[in-house]
Amino acid sequence: MSDTSVRDGAASKPKFKFDLAAAGPLLALIFLFILGTVINPEFINQGNVSNIMTRSSFIGIIAVGATFVITAGGIDLSVGSMAAFISGVMIIVMDRLAGSIGVNWWTVIAGCGLSVILGIGAGALNGILTTRGKIEAFIVTLGTMGIYRSLVTYFANGGTLSLGSEIRNVYRPIYYESFFAIPLPVWVFALTAVIGWIVLNRTSFGRHCLAIGSNEAVAKYSAINVDRVKTLTYIIQGLCVSLATIIYVPRLGSASASTGVLWELEAIAAVIIGGTILKGGYGRIGGSVVGAILLTTIGNILNLTDIISNYLNGAVQGVIIVVAVWLQRGNLTGGRRKSTD
Amino acid sequence: MKTILIGLLAATALAGSALAQEKIKIGVSIPAATHGFMGGLNWHAQEAEKRLEKAHPNIDIIIVTADGPADQASDLEDLVSVQKINALVVLPFESEPLTEPVKQVKATGAFITVVDRGLSEPGIEDIYLAGNNTEMGKVSAQYIKSRLKSGDNIVILRGIPTVLDTERFDAFMAEIKDSGIKVLDNKFANWNRDDGFEVMQDFLSRFPDIDGVWAQDDDITLGVVEAVKQAKRDKDMFIVGGAGMKEIIKGVMDGNALVPVDVLYPPALIATAMDITVANFTSNGPVRGRYILGAPLITKENAKSFYFPDSPF
């Protein structure tokens, strides 16, 4: 959807040749949809497609944030643990509030508000440690990844935090209900993507992200407040994680040490499949959206068939990820695209 | 005067060390609480420590938790060199990498109890105690056979590809084989609620007629329950989990039709192992040997005795 507009947006720079290469991940996704339908006609029915879209919204929303971080030359490994941590705190607080202010929407709104505050705070922490603290983003976020993961294990006493069933019934519709036949999480995903696209492609902040990602020193000399922009990318990432958490918690109403495991790698994979360059300097929100849906679709197709041994699921996913990026790098047309300058 | 004082001091010091030596130190090495089952196991280990130290003042129990096989090997070295343990209760992370470290502990003369995962070399341990994976698969299949008839369809959600999972699965398949019940497919759900939810959603879109689900694990079960409710097919089928999670046991007690039973694979088995190890020092009966716990079917009638509301699992 926003994929074509991204192409238009960047078309002003003639340096980039946009042809099949930019549409690579979308082609891979269309191919997967055809493959899925051939393997099992149930694949294309509305229920299943709706399942895929709803499921991919967690990683998708996080991937929108990750697109900013990666475009500006950073990386955030803490998102999965952060999601688990925020879910855990939300559940504890909502359970407490349900006891004091009662089982109603206010409790849920308070929980969601807290989630946003925690997300922004956690993002700011990553950002400030990276910029002011002058520590590599990889190390900072590896550190916070461990911290959040242990904290949720500690809160849960090694077990699982569960939302009380009464308050869950109030909160449940956020994940399970639909608006115009489209599940609410998908709406949140779509809105996040559209806003993300506008911010990255139509604001000076977005251009600053690109500039810092391509050459931080030059950006600094061009009077861009590099530290501020970079910190903001982590805050956007934190905010996206909190949005993902808000729609994740009502799904199963629980958080444990195994919540959000490897989400960081899935989000980064979605971003790279979508055409953003891991080194920074070039980012595509639409691509990240397609990347996230693609990753979920692979898992779904594997569940719909028993042709492939269960033990080989990881291998199939690996092959499809590499092929999707191969297509996206323009190998399909044989043209060579210089990705960063 | 001075000499007397020194003599007295020396005497008290000697008496003190003699008392310390009389205290029997038992090291307990288990994996850290990184998921539900291990959380429960850690909780039960701590409960057993409190109870046993209270009952036997001369017993000192030291629990250490590890994040991986290498970490656990270091823990064992510390238990020997720093704590000078008289006995070790160990739930090895993995069999092969821990066989040698446990052997080293044995060489110091300590009494060895191995829990759940056996070592790759026989004859090291004095006691082996484990849950029964084969029995678990078999009991689950027997229950499903009792509820369904030939021609009915079930799906299976498995754990993580491991020996333990394969044992459960093979035993289940052997038991269900001649019943005429059709196993539509099996997929790994990694002993995880989220994966249980997603795999079950896909099973539901793929198969219009499912009469039963073997989810094999209570965490997976909770995910499956949500998926089934979402598809509004909770009247069409029932789910059999396993382990003994308090939420599930509570449901069984309350007569939940969707998850009517559970099959026990108790995290409390660590407490049993600690009890028997302590008995080696306190009881006049022999304790050495192999203990395989049962995997009973938990039903509404007996659920109460398996319910631990304070446990995190």
Q: Mean pLDDT of chain A, nearest integer?
A: 87
Q: Work out the radius of gyration of chain A.
A: 20 Å
**Tell me, what is the CATH class of the largest domain in chain B?**
Alpha Beta
- Along the chain, the helix and strand elements of chain A come as HHHHHHEHHEEHHHHEHHH
Within the largest sheet of chain A, what's the order of strands? 1-4
CATH topology of the largest domain in chain B: Rossmann fold
Q: How many DSSP-defined strands of chain A?
A: 4
Query: What distance lies between the first and last C-alpha atoms of chain B, to the nearest angstrom?
Result: 62 Å
User: What structural category arises from helix and sheet content of chain B?
Assistant: alpha/beta
Structural features, described:
The complex is a heterodimer of chains A (341) and B (313). Chain A has 341 residues and is an all-alpha fold. Chain A contains 15 helices and 4 strands. Chain A has one domain (2-331): ABC transporter involved in vitamin B12 uptake, BtuC (Orthogonal Bundle). The longest helix of chain A is centred in the middle third of the chain and has 27 residues, at 105-131. The model of chain A is unreliable at 1-16 and 335-341 (pLDDT under 50). Chain B folds into 2 domains: 24-131 and 267-282, 3-Layer(aba) Sandwich (Rossmann fold), CATH 3.40.50.2300; 133-263, Response regulator (Rossmann fold, 3-Layer(aba) Sandwich). Chain B contains 10 helices and 12 strands. Chain B is elongated. The A-B interface holds A 40, 42, 45, 47-48, 51, 55, 153, 156-160, 162, 176, 251-252, 254, 256-259, 299-300, 303-304, 306, 310-311, 313 and B 32-36, 38-40, 42-43, 158, 161, 185-188, 192-194, 197-199, 201-203, 205-206, 219, 222-223, 226, 230-231, 247, 311-313.
Descriptive tags:
heterodimer, A: 341 residues, mainly alpha, ABC transporter involved in vitamin B12 uptake, BtuC, two-stranded antiparallel sheet, 4 strands, disordered C terminus, B: alpha/beta, Rossmann fold, 6-stranded parallel β-sheet, 10 helices, elongated
